[in-house]
Structures are given as structure tokens and as C-alpha cells.
Design goal:
This protein is an alpha/beta fold. The chain is built from 11 helices and 8 strands. It has 2 domains: 1-34 and 195-222, no CATH class; 43-190 and 228-307, 3-Layer(aba) Sandwich (Rossmann fold). Helix 4 links the parallel strand 3 (87-91) and strand 4 (114-118). It has an 8-stranded mixed sheet, sandwiched between helices. The longest helix is centred in the last third of the chain and has 25 residues, at 283-307.
């Protein structure tokens, strides 16, 4: 969104707030959930998108029904017996889509994983122009019911927050995720902070911010505090790899630092220099995710067989 558009939006909300903070907050939440256009913005993004599109040309596309329409998924086999390899789910971030995660997807496929890639509601091959954590968790739950249990899951940016709310069962059984291992890349952990940042960006005052939070809680059915992903991680206590760049300008590193010391099962990788978007294609990141989700599990399986 251009700086001029932000100026117009800020002016409009300031005038509306003076008349009705409740209406201002409700409209702010609607804007918060409105998904951006699906086409890549800029020459570099277009090159990455086209390359990803070409890589997915032979992938099997499956559309799954949800309460908001349908979501598109891409299924990449490993080329080996599917029963003997880990099945992994990849979930992109806000304003992204499966094509932007293909370097990661094919990197994991190359080491023997079966891959499912999800386009979240309002993105890519999925229907709609709205997305929130409840809809995202529902889409993740639909993937697990269709493809069977996942051994591991990767969530980038907003997708990481969605993965954690699904794994934590925040929205109930139909939006749950039982994956044994979780990787978060550049993901926010405090939705309260995300809300506050958005409110500040569009110039909301405290009355409208309060109304926005209330509208969000009424819509998704839980409090903003229940959407805290560190709380979810503590509750489920599963192996977790948190990857973040300290130079991330879209999701500040404090979101990742909140997991430090949470549990012996939580690991960190500081992928500095890769920012927020390039990080999903960085070779060191792909290798670390492969170690955590594929190679480590293979070693554990061999040890378990030896013990038994």
C-alpha cells in the first residue's frame, strides 16, 4: 500500500473515530482481514513467482472445501514408498502463495519427504478475499483430514502463527493439527502486538483499537490473548525450530526471542542477512529444516527400531 493511500486511510479513520469508535474499529478489523492482490508486485517478485509456477507445473492440485469456499493444495510425492517417508505440510505467509515456497518444498522433497503445500484462503489457488487465524486454522485442519497425519509442518510469517494456533487447538477439533514437529520461519508470536502495530499504522486511537479487538474476538470466538503462540507452544510441548533473521523488517526479532528458554524441545536458528522473504529460499535455512524434519526423524526411527 502506498504512503498516499495510508495517508488517506489514516485521515478517514480519524474522522470516523470522532463519530463512532465502534464503527471505526469494526471497519479496521475488516481491513485487517482483507487479503492483498494475488499477482506479484515488482520484477523480482514476478521472477520468483514464475520460477515457482514452473516447478509446480507437474504437482497434483487438490481443492478442499472449507466454510469460506475452498483452498488449493499442491501434493509433491517423494518418488519412494509414501508410507516410509515423512509427510510434511508447508504454509506460506500473508500476501504470499505456494509458488514462493518452492525452493524449500523441493529441497525437502530431495531428501526424501512427501510434501503438501497449502494456499491459505484469499491467496493463490484458494477462494475469497479474506483471511484470519480461524479461517487459516480451518484450512490446515482440512489438509490434515484429507492427507492424513503430518509428521512435520513449516509455517512462514502469518502461516507460522496459523500453524501454532492449529497445533494448539485454539479453535477446536476441526481446526487442529497433530504434526509431531513444527518449524516457524519469520513468524509473529504475539497477535496483540500485531494488532497494535496495524492500529498504529492506520492511525487508530485507543477507543477504536479497543473496538477492533472486540470485533476480532467476537468473530474468531476467542480472546486475543488466546492467540498467543508462545502459550500454545508451552501447552503442546512438541519439538519446535524457530528460524528468524535479526534484520527482519516485517516481523521484528522479538517475536522469535519470546520462545527462548521455553523448553528443551525448542531450538533457534538466527538466519541473519536474509530478511523476511528471502529467508525461505536460503540454503542454510532449507538445510536446517531438512535436518529437523527429515534427517533427525530418520535417525530417531532407526534408534527406536534398534531398541525394540
Amino acid at each position: 500500500m502506498t504512503s498516499f493511500a495510508f495517508k488517506v486511510i489514516r485521515f478517514g479513520f480519524s474522522r470516523l473515530e470522532a463519530l463512532s469508535p465502534r464503527l471505526s474499529g469494526s471497519l479496521a478489523f475488516k481491513l485487517f482481514c482483507r487479503t492483498p492482490g494475488r499477482q506479484p508486485k515488482g520484477a523480482k517478485a514476478k521472477r520468483v513467482f514464475v520460477a515457482g509456477q514452473q516447478k509446480l507445473a507437474n504437482a497434483k492440485i487438490v481443492r478442499l472445501p472449507t466454510s469460506a469456499g475452498s483452498v488449493g493444495t499442491y501434493h509433491l510425492g517423494s518418488g519412494t514408498d509414501q508410507r516410509a517417508v515423512p509427510r510434511l505440510l508447508l504454509v506460506h505467509g500473508w500476501g504470499s502463495r505456494a509458488e514462493y515456497l518452492t525452493d524449500l518444498a523441493f529441497g525437502l522433497s530431495a531428501v526424501g519427504a512427501e510434501i503438501v503445500m497449502l494456499d491459505l484462503p484469499g491467496h493463490g489457488a484458494s477462494s475469497g478475499r479474506r483471511l484470519d487465524l480461524r479461517l487459516a486454522a480451518e484450512a490446515i485442519g482440512a489438509c490434515e483430514r484429507h492427507y492424513g497425519p503430518f509428521d512435520g509442518v513449516v509455517g512462514h510469517s502469518f502461516g507460522g502463527a496459523a500453524v501454532m494456533t492449529a497445533a494448539g487447538g485454539v479453535f477446536g477439533d476441526r481446526s487442529s493439527l497433530g504434526a509431531g514437529r513444527i518449524v516457524l520461519i519469520g513468524a509473529p508470536s504475539s497477535m496483540g502486538e500485531v494488532f497494535a502495530g496495524f492500529a498504529s499504522a492506520i492511525g487508530l486511537g485507543r477507543p477504536s483499537m479497543t473496538a477492533m479487538r472486540q470485533r476480532a474476538e467476537d468473530y474468531v470466538g476467542v480472546s486475543v490473548e488466546q492467540l498467543d503462540t508462545v502459550t500454545a507452544a508451552r501447552r503442546i510441548d512438541r519439538p519446535l525450530l524457530v528460524i528468524h533473521a535479526e534484520d527482519d523488517k516485517e516481523v521484528n526479532v522479538g517475536h522469535a526471542q519470546r520462545y527462548i528458554g521455553l523448553s528443551p524441545k525448542v531450538r533457534h536458528l538466527w538466519a541473519n542477512g536474509h530478511g523476511h522473504r528471502r529467508i525461505v529460499s536460503a540454503l542454510e535455512v532449507i538445510d536446517a529444516v531438512a535436518d529437523f524434519l527429515v534427517r533427525d526423524q530418520a535417525i530417531e526411527a532407526k534408534l527406536n527400531r534398534a531398541v525394540s
